[in-house]
Amino acid sequence: MIIYFRPMRVKDELKQEAVIEATVKLVNETGFVSSSVAKIAKEARVSPATIYIYYKNKEDLLVSTYIEIKHKLSKALLENFDETLPIRDILKNFWHNAFDFARKNPDFIKFTEQFSNSPFSDLVDKAEVEKYFLPMLSVLQRGIEQKIIKDVHYEMLGAFIFFPVMILSNPRLCTDIKLNEETIEQAFTLAWDAIKL
Amino acid sequence: MIIYFRPMRVKDELKQEAVIEATVKLVNETGFVSSSVAKIAKEARVSPATIYIYYKNKEDLLVSTYIEIKHKLSKALLENFDETLPIRDILKNFWHNAFDFARKNPDFIKFTEQFSNSPFSDLVDKAEVEKYFLPMLSVLQRGIEQKIIKDVHYEMLGAFIFFPVMILSNPRLCTDIKLNEETIEQAFTLAWDAIKL
Amino acid sequence: MIIYFRPMRVKDELKQEAVIEATVKLVNETGFVSSSVAKIAKEARVSPATIYIYYKNKEDLLVSTYIEIKHKLSKALLENFDETLPIRDILKNFWHNAFDFARKNPDFIKFTEQFSNSPFSDLVDKAEVEKYFLPMLSVLQRGIEQKIIKDVHYEMLGAFIFFPVMILSNPRLCTDIKLNEETIEQAFTLAWDAIKL
Amino acid sequence: MIIYFRPMRVKDELKQEAVIEATVKLVNETGFVSSSVAKIAKEARVSPATIYIYYKNKEDLLVSTYIEIKHKLSKALLENFDETLPIRDILKNFWHNAFDFARKNPDFIKFTEQFSNSPFSDLVDKAEVEKYFLPMLSVLQRGIEQKIIKDVHYEMLGAFIFFPVMILSNPRLCTDIKLNEETIEQAFTLAWDAIKL
DNA sequence: GATGAATGAGTGTTCATTCAT
DNA sequence: CATGAATGAACACTCATTCAT
What we know:
Four copies of one chain form a homotetramer.
Chain A lengths: L1 E3 L8 H18 L6 H7 L4 H7 L3 H20 L9 H18 L1 H11 L9 H6 L2 H12 L8 H8 L1 H7 L11 H15 L2
Helix pairs in contact in A: 1-2, 1-6, 4-6, 5-6
Chain A binds a DNA duplex through helix 3.
């Protein structure tokens, strides 16, 4: 009997997932500055060289991780999306989805916030990320046409209905607010009052 | 009585200022990751060793720079602060001050945003920074008591009247909105609608 | 059953040996103060980073080098060790082994002397090094019991039969004595006269 | 009344002494490697620049400190030196002086041992140091002529009557021997037995 | 005589990445 | 596919020394 110690050439998705998890964890805990490839590899129980099989370089690893998270986020946000509901209800559903995601995946939120405020974010194809949110945009557009929502630039509307979620979920920014059904509902009232006509 | 004071070669304030400027510039352009002490020193036309005369270490340099900027910001925000005016006018004045500062010092805004979303921000004495904004807080408090402003946590109010400024001024987040008198006024309407009763 | 074992690129023992040699050489020639890791690496024709694969840090490199040498020394000293011989002959054999080693490996002697007089030596597990010399100790013990050797502390005996070798072999201390069969024999006479009853 | 903050040009011997003390202390505690001029200056409560008034450079500081200590040592050793006494008594007096000095100035001993085993010692004018010990040499010479002492090289005699003092006084080498009148007397017996005819 | 600011060159160490296996 | 060894370049930081005062 002969044993060849040559593993099958099976792309190991578990490994790739472990690398992403390790990246998020390390970046959140220690920041980009001290998140070296060697440390990420160690955390993921993988050789540094292995990372270079999946990603072109460190930059690619970080950007890919970001996009991956954004993708997960967008899927979460659009859950139960129903165009036929009243606009306020659509936004409210979206709003709750966002807080749900933030509560369940605080690491992802932390990572994206750190990432999107760094020059790394310039490397991301904005269009690709934005397209996930197109359905929301068309809802806002409809709201404006129906004179339900103020007729201002969609980025301004976003500043009052998308970003507050991020801010309120960010423990670095909001240290003593407690996120529960009541406060989330409260916050939505403010957001809706801001944009509604 | 006259005292002829013959000082030793004295700490050069111009140099220290150059170091801070270089820090902000480099961090904004290339991020924390690739803003090495050597590069900052070069940008400031100073020896790396000199930086260690003014700051204990790199961390100290970054944190001090952040606090310095926050201090400047707070002074700018409270300009023309007049407690006797109607609450809406006080907030509006504050709002315009904020956009003014952001327009004149985009580098400072960029830096603080990157900084406050990084683990470095954990090293800052929050209380010290917050105290600059106490006057604003007491205005909000009064508004609540007078049933002009919604009775919710001040952090939630902040998410709708302080952070929108940051978001709208951030070219990374708002790529095509044009900041002018009109849009700023517009934005304030949204903000006020959000928090007013 | 046959196992084809295909190893990764494997730690290069030649490289490690070269690092130790370079360390000894440089420390002897220029002292600890100016024996930087970079210089040692250059001397060993190796990257500075490579040294950190084999040793945790510079301290570890120096301490390991010292222990390695002590180990070699102890093996050399105990060559032809024969408990059945008269005590004087055992000591004499030991004595000649020591001078042989010192003559053949002057660098090792120089290094250990510099090392053991520096604060680095506090980092060495003394017990581990001492155990190599236990056989000699038991010989001395026997000599005392048989009333052949003076009944004094073993460290004192050591000061007269172990250290003189070091002193006489040290060109820094003994500049004009010539070490040959005659002088070594002479020195042993003095040592033996010192400790014998 | 005018006050000129221009101190008198008085060479401050206290300062110089403080520098030497600081040097010895730091080198003993942390070794040559981490005894920087800045640290020594701080320990001596003096500016780094001040040290360069008294010494050409760091090397000069270390070497001068060594010679200074050696000078003190030699003066201590030759106390009560009386040529007319029997040779054994002269040596014994010397022996006791040496242990006295070692007991009272362990820092000096530690420093000289570290120094003389480092390449720094090559920078010392050996002749200058040796001349302090010439009286001892002539005693040994006389002993040889009178057939009281073995007719061997003076360096070999030294290895048995000078160095044992160093070894026995060195806590790094002799960890559990207790130095008291009895053991010192004991050690002298061994030393004398070694060299006497 | 005495100083603290200033510095280029150097320190120990870690980096992102490649290579042979 | 996957690895740990290997590395030159870079890292944060300290060095011995000088300079203006």
